[in-house]
Structure formats: structure tokens, C-alpha cells
Design goal:
heterodimer, A: about 260 residues, alpha/beta, Rossmann fold, B: Rossmann fold, 2 domains, about 35% helix, elongated, Elp5 (chain B), cytoplasm (chain B), tRNA processing (chain B), P-loop_NTPase (chain B)
Amino acid sequence: MEQKGSSWDVVEQALGLGQMEEEGLPWALGVVLIEDRVETDASFLLHQLLKRSLSSNPSNTIIFLAFSHPFSHYDRILRKLGCNLVVHRENNRLVFLDMRLLQCPDGDEGKTRESGLVALYGKIRKTIHALPDDKKNFVIIMIDDVSLMEVAANGSLDHILDFLHYCHTLTAEFKCSLVMLNHEDIYSNMERPTFILDMEYLADVLIKAEPLVTGLATDVHGQLMVLTNKICHGQGSSRNKKHNFHFRVKENRVEYFYPGSRT
Amino acid sequence: MAESICRTLRNGRLEGEHAAALTIKDTIASPFGFDVFNHVLSQLSSFILAGKSQSRGVVVVAFTRSPSFYVDLLKRRGIDVDASKKWIRILDCYTDPVGWKDMLIECGSLSQEASTTARLCKDVRDLDKMCSSIVELGNGLIGQVKGHFSVAIDSVSVMLRHASMTSIADLLNNLRGHDQVSSIFWLLHSELHEVRVTAVLEYMSSMVASLEPLNCSANGQRSELERVSLLGPKGKFHVRLKRRNGRVRVMYEEFYLEHSGINFTSLSSEDGLVYQGLVPKVQFNLQLSEKERDDRAKVVLPFEHQGIGKPIQIYDGRKSLTESVNEATAVSTETLQTAGDSSNGEIIYFRDSDDEMPDSDEDPDDDLDI
């Protein structure tokens, strides 16, 4: 019988999370981009990372920008994973920003349009500044759906990229991490999917969730590709490594395993 | 080749010519352009420090990394950074490219600190101002003495997002033509832009270094990404050098990434052999390009059935079509039932003409008088 949660270890190993925590370092992941498809929703990765970051290191602070679901949704899911978000929110370890009502009014000037995003950036920055010095480096910013952010910004991709760039400056300044989810297939019809490419250039770690290439299977729901581009931590760096996993979504947890390791 | 690029940048401009310019271009399938950029920057820096190069300082225009990243990078490569104030200046277009932090300062939620090596650029859309800041920083480096400096731009792709192609071309041309600029190089992610943009930038540079995955038979770019990652951080490094007289040299070597940085392995030390991989040995083009292959697949061959989805009826020369069909079905019902599928194993027989009756018993030679 396998231990519960041990299958998540393979993903953690790929990201090098365990090693960073052993050395008492923050998650120096940089920018993590999770790309999923309609057939394989990868939001479970966000839940897993959220739970992991809250439960492992007490210094970690999460700033969660929710564009797709309200707090109650995440609370319910994380409760099943054994993590109480309400308590964490009360302890200020989780800063939950419900952005579903964010509207960037379509004014005459570009300024009014980007003002919503500027304010959001200001809010994130203020939150980090308000933290005590020893916790400033342990911040993880999560965006649950970049494509809905695009909707909020009236489809102005440039402003989204500007916003992401400013979040990137935060990762450089405070060594915090940025985890974001986007959908690959909504850009597939474009002649040059520059937006998703821009995001891929920005990302230090790329996680792709795709349906199984060989077709549908009963015991495998999809495959994950973890591509670490630029992670550097401690002495060892795992640069340009690629890991492949299969996953199976169960009622309360997700199993991850190497292809072929389970029959 | 990577060496010869650095050497050309080191030697700088010739009297009365434009500055040496290098475009480093990569794609998502082989996204290591930034490593090459860092390699070139650190090589050039060590040349400058050793006093071997024409330029006496370098101005880095930083769009995608913070100034402190570059300082750390040079430190890691064992380059004396304490003296850096004398030979490096960074125009910081990273920290606040479109002035959002400025907007927030007005609201009173931010504070800022100043630095000696770096200068903050708060509006990357104003290229005239940027150009003058670059020149100012460069002049600050070389002082009053007549000298030269180099310029490094770490992402033209980001510039292109904020400003138009023409204004960027104008900026780069101005820098190339500036008397004090000895060499200039920039990084470009070619997939993010139209082909013509890449072409314009390549025209403006005397050297183009492009990074390609090792195995590049053209499937979709998505699968390319996966393939290169399987092969590990390796790839082909193509260099195109343009001489003043118009001669173009194309060379290539392979690169692989290590923890410490990027490494190049030339395929052969002899110059002649370098061409081997590029110039075909036969004068015929034996391979097909992707487009040619597509076109070939579209050609309808004369013997192929051309009715779309419908069965083809071929006139056999003696009966009307409907008749023959009826007859054929009448005759072959039995065989059909056994064979199951009428389209399999069918033989279509063409008769030459109606002159000759089928299966006539008469001897064809009986009118001969033998």
C-alpha cells in the first residue's frame, strides 16, 4: 500500500521543492507557468501547490489573485485536502484577493484602462512591504487564471504583459515566486500565438498538462510535462531538465507517477 | 564561431564605417538566446578589462533582467566588478518600464533608492530620450577622452512591444552611426514578431547568430519544444557574417549548456570543413521542403478516383452505363455475397472499340488465303 501523498513527491522532486525547504530557503521557483487544456484541467496543481506552501513552511505567505472562483470554492477543495484556508487567512498567511469583479473601464485614454491593473500591482506590493523583513522572501503570488484577467482588461494583452512584467520585478526584488495558470488551447487558433509565447519566455518553470497522446485510458487521465528552464538554488541547479509524469485525478487526491511505472 | 563574433565585436568599428552589430536570435524550440547574450557580454567585458578592445566601456540596456542580475553574472564569471563603475553602465528599463511605480509613488505607497552604475528609465516608449540616455551614459564612461563604448540591448522583443518598428530601427541606426559607439549587439525572440521585423533587424546588423534545435525537420513548433527538451540543452549555432564587400559567410557549430554557462564545440577546426554541414555535396536538391511536400501531397494523380465520395463509373465502350451496372450486379450477385465487399478485388476491363464482338468464336485467320 502506498503512502498517501507520496506520489506528489515526484513532482516536488522535479521542482526541487524538498531541497529548498531542507536548506530553509524560500521557494526560489521564479515564474511558474501552468498550461492546461480543456480536456485536462490543471487547477488541481494550483490546489496542491497552495496546500503544500501553506502546510510546509510557516514563513510562507500566499497572495492569491482569484479571477475564476470565489473563496468558498477554494476553501471547500482545500478542506478536502486537509487544509483550512479560513484559519490561514485569519493568520494573514493567505491574502486572498477576489478579482472577479475587477473591471478596467474602457476609457478614452489607455491610462484609465490600465489603472485597475496598476492598482492591483500596488496592492500586491503593499502587502509584501507590510510583511516583516524575515518573511518578505517567502512570498508566493498565485494567479488562478490569466485568460480571465485578459477578459477583465478588455482583451488588452499588452497591459497584462506589463502587469506580469511588474510581478516579475517583484520576484527579482524579493526573490518571491509567481505561479500562474493559463490555457494553451485558447490561443491555438491564432496565427502567431505571441501572448502565450511571451509568457513562456517569461517563465522559469513550465508545467504543461495534456491529454494522453496515445488516447484515452481508464487509469491515466493525462500527462504532465515539467520543464525547468532557469531554476537555480543552492549549489545544484536543475537547468533545462524535462520530467514527464502521468496523473490520475481521484476523489480527494491526485496520483502522479512516471509513465509505465503503474499497470 | 562564437569566438570570432566576440573578436569582431572587440575590434569594433573601422574608420568611416558603421559600428559592428550583432543580432542574436532564438526561438521557443531553442530558447537559449539569453545564454548566448550573457556569454558575449562577459567575453566583451573581459576584453575591455584587459584593455584589448577598441571600446573602453559597455552600456547595457536591461529590459528583461534587473541591473543587479548583470552585476552578479559578471561576478560569477570572475570579472572584477569592483572596478565596474569605471567601465559598465546599465540603463535600467526593467524596474519600471512604463512608469507604474511612479504612479504609485504619487499615491505615496513606494519609496526609491538610487544607484551609481544603473540609471532608471521610466518610459521605454520614448525612444529619443532612451537614445540620448544611452549616449550620455556611454560618454560618462569614457570621459572627455576620445574613445569608444559598446552597447548591449538584452531584448529588442520587449522594445518592439512598446514602440514601433520604424522608431526602433531609427534608434539602432543612430547608435550604429554614432562616432563613439564601437560595437552593438541585441537579442531577439524571432517567433514573437513578423518575418519582416526580423529581416529589418538582420539587415541592420553585420552579424547574425541564430540558435536552432539540433533536429529541425519542420513539424509544428509545439512538438519542437518537446523534442529539444528531450535532447537536453543543446543546439545548433548558426552564424552569418557580412563583409563590407558584400560577401556573406555562413558557419555553424554546436552549443551545449552547462551549469557555468554556454559552451561551443566547433565541428572542425579546419575552415573548409566547417562548410561541410551547410553546403550540399550534390548539386541536386534531394530533400523536399515542408511546403514542397505539402504541394506534392495535393497533386491528384491521373489514375486516382476523382469523384468525391461517389463511386466512379467508367464507360466500357459498348453499353450504356446504367445497363452495364445492372448487368454487372445481376451477374455478380453470387460472388458479391461471398466476397462481402464489392469494391475489393474488382477488375475493370476496357474494350478498345465496338468493332470486335466479344468472345466471337470465329477464327480470326480464316479469311487468310494460306
